[in-house]
Amino acid sequence: MRVKVKPMDCTGCALCELACGFHWDEAFSLISASIMQYRAEEKKDYLGIIVKTEEDLFLGRPEGAEAVKLGELQKGGGGGGASAKPILIREACDMCESVGKDPQCVAICPHDALYVE
Amino acid sequence: MYYGDTLLVNLDTGTTEQFSFDEVGVFGPGLAAGIGLYEKYGDADPLVIGSGLLTGTTAPASCLGFVVGKSPLTGEVAVSPLGLYAGAEVKLSGFAMIVIRGTSDKPVYLWLHDGVADIQDASALWGRDNWETTDAIRQEMGEGLIQVISAGPACEEGSRLASFSIDYWGSGDTAGLGAAMGARKLKAVALRGLGMLDPEDPEAYYEATMEMLAGSPAEPGFGRLSKGLGAGDVDGWLKPMVHRYRSCFACPAACNTFVKYNEPASVLAPDGVDEPGVMVTSAAAALWLMGGGWEAEPACRAMEAMARAGIDQVRGARELAEKPLKDPAGVAAAVSALTGSAAAGWPSSDRVGSGLFGPWVPPLGSPDEWMEAHRLGYLLGICPTYLLTSGIDRGALLGLCGPASGVELDTGRIAEMLP
Predict the structure, then answer these.
(1) Contact A18, B250 (CB under 8 A)
(2) Domain range list for chain B
């Protein structure tokens, strides 16, 4: 079971990042979440979601979703470029088990762009 | 729930200083502090940038920041909104409030990041449009997520249509504060925030916001606005070009509508054209153009041209609506020929805002309800349009202030802070 992404349902509100960051720090920021938007290509409206786990990164790109092993982030172009690198130094998703809740990113998403499977 | 100091920028001398932020205690949160600071430094006719008490958190639609300054259009103090990600980036930039005084002797931009304020030379940016400016600053700083509040060519020239832009997409600056930036030779304010906001009672705050979000409407597009106004189906008009609906920060209602006209809207991969279209952020502009008989494609190209130039899209669209264009080739000339003859406002209403607040927010509800949404929204950092269209429990929203920061607010105190 893991958090997966329907990227074209994402509207870029960042609530998932806030909820995940809160899970780790009991505070709000955009630097500590295990989930991150890839939004560096704003003029193209190219928006994806990356989820870091212990083993891999789940890349929810508009053109398709896939898991890539840690260390292979540079491969595959958009959604895996330099702007996505900060997630490598963050905590891996623990499905919010450490706080005894359902995954908060999924719970908070207003557009059901995230799900567990 | 603020992070960092108050920043005082002196463009006359090219210097900055910081002092401990206690304006919430002195004046009240959000816009109350912004106006308090404006009045404190009023002799210098400053621009004050800030955010609301709850901006940048899981509170629904907590995207709102603001710019306070004297409107070149009226000579009175006015407020323009910072939506999209700009309000949240102000909050997380490391500066609670930013006061900008003086006039630079050369073009500059202000670069705010992680509690550091740098005044950068913008000579090479002067004369460039908002798209070029945003690209250039992001490239210079090597960071694609920087939010750029910029003064386009219309702002540099002091046009009566001037309006600052947020990134590429224009803004709700109907007061001409973009021209106030241009007059100070302030080309842009660039923001990147990696700060952290600590609620007073984190769990109580978070759980209360989750409960609010669970009951929030998530219908995307401008439909909630246009239906409430009894206006036409602007979503249907745009639909053939819609790529995706986009939210402002932390907002469950994705009003903003990204349309593509330089490539098919269905293109998903990032290897298409560099500039496939525009994000339509102004429902009022779209409604004026649609109501004027414009085809959607030239209308969206016109909104792009106005966003690039730093032109208030609402007034520009209202003027353009008088001469509908079917041929996209005529858009650039039509936008260049704008005179600023039209007033800001909405097609279905005579309401033009209040003295302090322009008509960025649709005229929904009674004038008193509209004004209350502005007071609450600008103090807390919640989009007033969301307050007017979501049915959110405003008492519950006020109840967040305690767990956020220990500040207790009620409607009586709000009216005192922002009469």
Answers:
(1) yes
(2) 223-336
∠ Cα B370 B322 B275 (to 5°) = 80
Cα B46 from Cα B22, distance rounded (Å): 19
> What residues of chain A, 6 to 45, have a C-beta less than 8 Å from chain B?
8, 11-15, 18-19, 22, 25-32, 39-45
Query: Rounded to whole angstroms, how far apart are CA atoms B43 and A102?
Result: 54
CA-nearest of B47, B49, B67 to B358 is B67
Residue B386 forms contact with A (CB below 8 Å): no
Question: pLDDT tens digits, residue range B333-346?
Answer: 999 999 999 999 99
In the block, tokens 């003027």 appear at B319
Which residues are registered as beta bridge partners of B300? none
**Token output for A30:** 């955009």
Closest chain A C-alpha to B341 CA, distance in angstroms: 31
- The predicted-structure confidence for B24-66, as pLDDT tens digits, reads as follows 788 899 999 999 999 999 999 999 999 999 999 999 999 999 9
CB atoms within 10 A of CB B364: 20
- Please state, in angstroms and rounded to a whole number, the distance separating the CA atoms of residues B367 and B364: 8
**Region for residue B161 given its phi and psi (left: phi exceeds 0; alpha: psi -120 to 50; beta: otherwise):** alpha
Q: Which of residues 40-59 of A touch B (CB under 8 A)?
A: 40-47
Residue B268 at interface with chain A, using a CB cutoff of 8 Å: yes
Domain map of chain A by residue range? 3-116
Check whether B217 has a pLDDT greater than 90.
Answer: no
pLDDT at B301: 98
Q: Please report how the helices B31-40 and B367-380 are oriented relative to each other, as an axis angle in degrees rounded to 10.
A: 80
Please check whether residue B91 is in contact with residue B51, taking contact to mean a CB–CB distance below 8 angstroms.
Answer: yes
* Identity of residue B96: A
Cβ count near B266 (within 10 Å): 7
The beta-carbon neighbor of B268 closest among A28, A62, A83 is A62
**Interchain proximity A27–B197, CB inside 8 Å:** yes
Instruction: Mention every residue, 6+ apart, whose C-beta is less than 8 A from residue B419.
Output: none
B positions 269-328 inside 8 Å of A (CB):
269-272, 274-277, 279
**Please, where are the H alpha helices in B217-337?**
223-229, 234-238, 283-291, 296-309, 313-320, 331-336
